[in-house]
Specification:
The chain has 394 residues and is α+β, with helices and mostly antiparallel strands.
Length: 394
């Protein structure tokens, strides 16, 4: 831990060494809320977000802030280690195009719903706040197994021993956004007369005695399951593509149970026990890092990433960073950098290098080595990964 702020409503324990003023102001607002339990933890990749700082871990007693969970409910990472090394990987451009054909990116969904994804989606049932199927639900069915845009990605990586990995980052797509915005607006509406008392309207909340609290929680859990199912469907498609690319058949599909795999949310809320009490823990851009628990901390599309094992640090509420963290906004990145800069900073990586993904340029992110150095008391690196292929939606 780098420092503690002690003059807010509750202490703020900070692992970031380069926290901007706006982000600090946001976390102070959160720490002043009346239901914060013990303290607020700010991870090493923390940066300003909407309402609350990205990289915040907060434990709340009897209340939940929908905007603190965020609008991409259940967003997270998945990684799998293949049983072969880089020598067998072959032409990366061909593999990238194969993955891009298999998995819709950006706002797109699947034109047809496969039997597998259709069964998975049916198994989820309808989001609890919807009593019947509508256009939003049908769209969600088509988006199961799709990447999205922004900082979501699919990567083929190499570890220190040149073993090949797949690593991907995505969430609950448009259905998660719609559910989140619905409940955020509901919270603001219920607190309309008291919003002026909050330092930020995006800190509107539900308390446990409200029926809206349970309604939000039910939709939250559904969206978190959807996000995990979405990552799993994409992973299966990548594994199949890689298997055909390397072996000319689907043999890897039957060997999945033998492969080392990690899956973790980093935008979510769940009940946990901390400092003598059962509380609601919201991780907004943070990963659970209980003792011995595996997690994923990516860098950017031109730098390294890490598979880590948690140390169970109680002051962090058993958490760690969810990545390198942005050091500049997307608007600023597009203003400052051009395609030539992107090509230079992603040398050796098979990926898009056009204007649509310039805002994901590595220089827009913090130094992943500095972020990892600031959280040595939270996690132990187990594998270091470097991407050779990256798919983004733009």
């Amino acid at each position: 831990m780098k420092r503690t702020i002690g003059d807010a409503g509750k202490p703020i324990k900070i692992w970031a060494s380069d926290l901007e003023e706006w982000a600090e102001a946001q976390v102070r607002n959160v720490a002043n809320l009346p239901f914060i339990h013990s303290h607020v933890a700010l991870m090493a990749d923390a940066h300003a977000g909407k309402g609350s700082t990205i990289g915040t871990v907060l434990a709340t007693d009897g209340a939940i802030l929908p905007a603190a969970v965020g609008v991409d409910i259940g967003c997270g990472m998945c990684a799998l280690k293949f049983p072969f090394k880089v020598e067998q990987l072959g032409d990366l451009k061909t593999l990238r195009h194969s993955i891009e054909r298999s998995i819709p990116t950006g706002r797109d969904g699947n034109r047809e719903i496969s039997d597998r994804s259709g069964k998975v989606f049916s198994g989820l049932g309808l989001p609890p706040s919807y009593s019947q199927e509508n256009k939003l639900i049908r769209n969600a069915a088509h988006q199961l197994g799709s990447l999205g845009g922004g900082n979501h990605f699919i990567e083929i990586c190499l570890d220190q021993e040149s073993f090949v990995w797949v690593m991907l980052h995505s969430g609950s797509r448009n259905i998660g956004l719609m559910l989140a915005e619905k409940h955020i607006e509901k919270a603001k509406g219920l607190m309309k007369e008291r919003l002026s008392q909050l330092p930020d309207p995006d800190l509107a909340y539900f308390t446990e005695e409200m029926p809206e609290f349970k309604a939000y929680l039910d939709d939250l859990h559904w969206a978190q399951f959807y996000a995990k199912a979405n990552r799993n469907e994409m992973l299966l498609r990548v594994v199949k593509d890689v298997s055909h690319h390397v072996y000319k058949d689907a043999r890897l599909m039957s060997d999945l149970g033998q492969c080392f795999r990690v899956d973790c949310h980093h935008n979510y809320c769940q009940k946990e026990h901390h400092f003598g009490k059962d509380v609601w823990v919201t991780r907004k851009g943070a990963v659970s890092a209980r003792a011995g628990e595996y997690g994923i901390i990516p860098g950017s599309m031109g730098t390294k990433s890490f598979i880590v094992k948690g140390k169970g640090n109680v002051d962090s509420f058993n958490s760690c960073s969810h990545g390198a963290g942005r050091k500049m906004s997307r608007i600023e990145a597009r203003r400052r950098f051009k395609e030539d800069d992107l090509r230079l900073q992603t040398q050796g990586v098979e990926c898009r290098k056009d204007r649509a993904v310039v805002d994901e340029i590595p220089e827009a992110y913090k130094d992943i080595d500095a972020v990892m150095a600031n959280q040595t008391d939270l996690v132990e690196p187990v594998f270091q990964l470097k991407q050779v292929l990256c798919v983004k939606g733009g």
